[in-house]
Write a structure and sequence with these properties.
heterodimer, A: alpha+beta, nine-stranded mixed β-sheet, 16 helices, rod-shaped, B: alpha/beta, 17 strands
Chain lengths: 539, 462
């Protein structure tokens, strides 16, 4: 890798020595400028969200997650329903058997604590088995009979058994402690079960949702007679639960009790932890749903976000997902219906929600990040264009400077082929002007003749010639040389004669020719126009 | 050169702007969860399956101080210390099917001592400076100091209190002349227990031997541990139990009462026995006040509203007034600095005197700072509306004034020893009771049976 990088640098260095045409440089420059403009447009568009597809992404995410969790919950509910139906059949069978042996009916169980306890003992095995195999947090069975009809509370007190897990930690409930929430305490003691802190002997069915519905609704097929209760708080506890209720049937097929399983809100949230998304924390709900309403307050909610109460959310359809309006904020999300209903006949379903504010902020953050990337690229392109401008202009500037200074390039390239060509031409021209074999022969001969004639000049005549070479006239020469005008005229006449020129003007032409050819020293002698004699005279 | 410097400065500025834009994007993405950045889970024991006051405290935190800081505490489990102990060890050892450790959990030192690596726990000294730690009562803080590190932070302490179903006791007292003062000593209590069992048996003469239990103790191990120490002897000999002279004084009345059926020996908490009318006096943690119902439900579903009173724990005759200091603290599982800081913020809020007193007085605990005791507790107690709670805090005050607190030693074998002893002593006594009844329930055999069981205990733990 290092070798390749080194080679690259070498190539770059070598390429600097090659001449690249102005046309190509300009093309590159314009290309960079165009890219800069493009990225500037991209930056603006990304900043304003024109490229934003966050909503589509959120929709895909919600669909995927909801599908997954909905599928998992559906399976669990199906299994629990099947187990509860089986439990109901088993309890019905046990009940029928026990009553037939004694020749009794369910009504005859009233005021019969011993019989009720025997039944509960028989029920315990089935309930315990259902609790262990089912993915639930509790199981219960209640009969339409009470141990003491003389009590004031007898009208709403019914005998039954309710087993719950005491320390649910997740979906796996293997080995968890079972507590005895309702039932005969003797059974708890013989089965070494701890009594719940708020244990009572019997159920208060006035606080058991769905009981009346289950007991009064005629049963055509057991498999169609189950329903989930709304979420409610177990009396005198902190736990909220939903119960799956199935009627227990007597020998004639009439409901004489209710049984089923429990899912607590804690168990639900541990089994279905709401996933984190890049748009924020989500909320997963199992509750009554309809086209335009979801009711989390009546169901189970799993969330890592602290939520204020929102019993109902009004749903409205958006382009990619739904919007759910709560009392304090709006949520984005999706919901689906499950093939199950609650005891009030409402459809139950699953909902996946995300705070709309959280989504917008995440989308804005994503836009800002994309915009900043484009902005960085834009900066780089601007830097590149500045650099290219400098590379474009500096050879020209350098070359112009060189021309102004009259310096020879000494063979150095500017890197621009047109400029290199111009420099070569100028160098040629300059070389031609400065002499040697480059002057035309007749001019060279003429200069030699004048040069040999100037050898015959006296020192004084040469001095006057130098003054003329400096551009002085006769009057100025008189002052400079401190000689009289007649002397100046005399020396000037001698100059004309010896150099064979007719006038001062012709003399000036000759001087100018020698100057242009760079051979003025030949004509004027040592020191040329600035000889020490002239300088001494000037002094 | 100047020009280049100017250009360079422009580009540097522009690059900074781009970086700021990008950071703003990231910052917004993080800050959008401004409501709750950190969600912490906690396993606790306050309230069990009841309407937990601690859950209400957590709700209050989430809506106030927690909301400001972006911290949300979630209750993942409400059980008891033994269950948490098992679950924590299962998680710490990576047992199959074990639940993931929460961010915080209630714990006794015995749980930390049993962990394979207590390095996973946060040392609170990193977040509570010396001044903050000085605010706590030193003996409470010291109990949570293990291996030179503050691994357990006390948030509420309790002690053992005697609860009485005063309604049933008054009925018994009216007919037999029993007095509450008799229960100031263990000997008096067990004597009263035997009389109660005999009296209840007499209520149903047609059913012999159906006398009810009088007394239930949640911690038989503590009865002997604290009793031995109160009589001036060491309960422990190394990692096991020392059976000295004190044992004889403690064992005989206890075993006699148990063999007669006067002591409740079933599994489960003392509150259960009281709730079903199967006992009328209990010794339990002061915090079990939450679980005592004002109703007793009998086997015929008949319920009776009762009055519950509370008294300091009995002491052995001639022994000093010593009582167990109870109450677990909170351990925090060390993760990243943000979560550690969030957990300490919550615990700091919880142990602020005003908040601490508000919580403890709703759950039957003592606060953990001196300022809370001195400045806030008296006022809070005077505002209690439940007679049960008022009784409890009167008993608390008397205990504080007259008793010394005993702290269990930090032995690695403590929990195993305690669990084993609790189970075995009950089983041995239940077996002894059955055997004694089958042998005709003769008085002469009672002490012999009691001594035999003691010998079995000695050989088991020698």
């Amino acid at each position: 890798m290092k070798k390749k990088i080194r080679k690259l640098f070498e190539l770059t260095r070598l390429s600097k020595n090659r001449s690249v045409s102005l046309r190509r440089r300009l093309t590159l420059y314009w290309a960079v400028m165009l890219l800069t403009v493009c990225f500037f447009m991209l930056f603006l568009l990304s900043f304003t969200g024109a490229f934003s597809h966050q909503e589509r992404e959120l929709k895909e995410y919600l669909e995927y997650q909801l599908s997954y969790m909905d599928s998992s919950l559906s399976h669990q509910i199906d299994d629990l329903t099947a187990q509860s139906l089986a439990l109901s059949r088993q309890l019905s069978s046990v009940l029928t058997q026990q009553l037939e042996i004694r020749g009794k009916s369910v009504k005859d169980l009233n005021d019969q604590p011993d019989m009720l306890e025997q039944l509960q003992r028989a029920f315990y095995e089935k309930l315990s088995a259902t609790l262990q195999i089912g993915e639930c947090s509790g199981v219960y069975a209640v009969l339409d009979a009470t141990v003491n009809t003389s009590l004031e509370s007898a009208a709403k007190s019914r005998s039954g058994m309710y087993l719950r897990y005491a320390n649910v930690k997740g979906r796996n409930t293997t080995g968890k402690d079972v507590v005895y929430f309702r039932g005969m305490p003797g059974i708890a003691r013989s089965e070494h079960l701890e009594l719940h802190n708020r244990w009572e002997l019997e159920f208060d069915v006035s606080r058991l949702p769905g009981y009346e519905t289950m007991m009064t609704r005629p049963v055509k097929r057991l498999a169609n007679s189950y329903a989930w209760t709304a979420c409610f708080t177990l009396p005198q506890t902190w736990e909220r639960v939903m119960l799956l209720s199935v009627p227990i049937l007597d020998g004639s097929g009439k409901p004489c009790g209710v049984c089923g399983v429990e899912i607590s809100s804690l168990y639900f949230s541990l089994s279905y932890p709401a996933p984190d998304s890049r748009f924020g924390k989500t909320i997963f709900v199992f509750a009554p749903v309809s086209e335009d309403m979801v009711e989390p307050g009546e169901g189970m909610v799993s969330s890592d976000v602290y939520m204020d109460d929102f019993p109902r959310l009004k749903a409205s359809r958006g382009r990619y997902f739904n919007y759910y309006q709560g009392t304090r904020q709006t949520y984005a999300g999706l919901h689906r219906r499950l093939e199950t209903k609650d005891t009030e006949g409402k459809d139950l379903g699953t909902v996946l929600l995300l705070s709309e504010r959280s989504f917008h902020e995440a989308a804005r953050a994503a836009r800002l990040q994309i915009a900043s990337v484009f902005f960085l690229i834009l900066l780089l392109l601007l830097a590149l264009s500045f650099y290219l401008t400098w590379r474009f202009a500096s050879p020209i500037s350098r070359s112009l400077e060189a021309i102004r200074n009259g310096a020879s390039s000494g063979g150095q390239k500017s890197g621009v082929s047109e400029i290199d060509t111009l420099m070569e031409f100028l160098q040629t021209k300059a070389a031609q002007r400065t002499g040697g074999n480059e002057l035309p022969p007749e001019i060279g001969e003429l200069l030699c003749q004048f040069s040999s004639r100037s050898q015959k000049l006296t020192a004084a005549e040469r001095s006057v010639l130098r003054y003329y070479a400096q551009g002085l006239d006769a009057a100025q020469i008189m002052e400079k040389a401190c000689i009289s005008m007649s002397t100046v005229r005399k020396h000037s006449g001698n100059l004309y004669r010896k150099l064979q020129v007719a006038s001062r003007d012709e003399l000036m032409l000759v001087i100018d020719l020698f100057r242009r050819c760079g051979r003025l020293e030949e004509l004027l002698g040592e020191g040329g126009e600035n000889s020490p004699n002239n300088q001494q005279t000037e002094r | 050169m100047k020009r280049w410097r100017r250009l360079f400065r422009c580009f540097a500025l522009a690059a900074c702007l781009a970086a700021c834009l990008s950071a703003a994007g990231c910052g917004v993405q993080e800050g959008d969860k401004k409501g709750h950045d950190v969600a912490l889970t906690i396993w606790h024991v306050y309230g069990g399956q009841t309407d937990s006051p601690f859950n209400a405290v957590i709700d209050e935190y989430n809506q106030t101080a927690g909301k400001e800081e972006g911290i949300y505490v979630q209750v993942a489990s409400v059980t008891n210390t033994n269950t948490i102990h098992e679950d924590v060890l299962a998680a710490a050892n990576g047992d199959p099917g074990a639940a993931e450790l929460p961010d915080m959990f209630v714990s006794y030192p015995k749980t930390v001592l049993a962990m394979p690596d207590d390095g996973i726990l946060l040392n609170y000294e990193e977040y509570f400076d010396e001044e903050a730690r000085k605010a706590f009562l030193p003996e409470f803080l010291e109990e949570g100091r293990i291996g030179g590190r503050q691994l357990i932070l006390p948030i509420a302490k309790s002690t053992e209190i005697m609860y009485v179903n005063q309604t049933a006791f008054d009925r018994f007292a009216a007919q037999t002349g029993a007095r509450l003062e008799e229960m100031e000593t263990w000997e008096g209590l067990f004597d009263l227990a035997e009389r109660y069992t005999a009296w209840t048996d007499e209520q149903t003469p047609e059913i012999p031997g159906d006398g009810k239990a009088f007394f239930a103790h949640d911690y038989h191990f503590d009865y002997f541990q604290v009793g031995t120490e109160a009589l001036g002897e060491d309960f422990f000999a190394g990692n096991t139990i020392a059976f000295g002279k004190a044992w004889e004084q403690l064992w005989r009345p206890y075993a006699r009462a148990a063999l007669r059926g006067a002591v409740w020996l079933e599994n489960g908490y003392a509150t259960e026995a009281l709730r079903t009318g199967d006992a009328i006096v209990t010794v339990a943690s002061s915090a079990s006040v939450l679980y005592y119902s004002d109703m007793v439900t009998y086997a015929d579903n008949h319920s009776e509203r009762i009055r519950i009173t509370a008294f300091p724990c009995p002491v052995p005759s001639g022994g000093k007034k010593l009582v167990m200091q109870r109450g677990a603290g909170i351990c925090t599982v060390h993760s990243d600095p943000e979560r550690d800081k969030a957990a300490c913020h919550f615990l700091g809020w919880l142990t602020e005197p005003a908040e601490n007193v508000k919580f403890v007085t709703s759950a039957g605990y003592m606060p953990v700072t001196q300022k809370a005791f001195d400045d806030f507790l008296p006022g809070a107690v005077s505002r209690l509306t439940s007679s049960k709670y008022r009784e409890l805090y009167q008993a608390f005050r008397k205990t504080q004034q007259e008793y010394a607190f005993y702290t269990a030693p930090q032995l690695e074998t403590y929990l195993d020893l305690e669990t084993d002893f609790e189970e075995n002593v009950r089983l041995l006594l239940m077996a002894g009771r059955n055997a004694w009844r089958e042998a005709g329930s003769r008085q002469t055999e009672l002490d012999k049976t009691a001594d035999e069981i003691l010998d079995q205990l000695k050989s088991r733990y020698a």
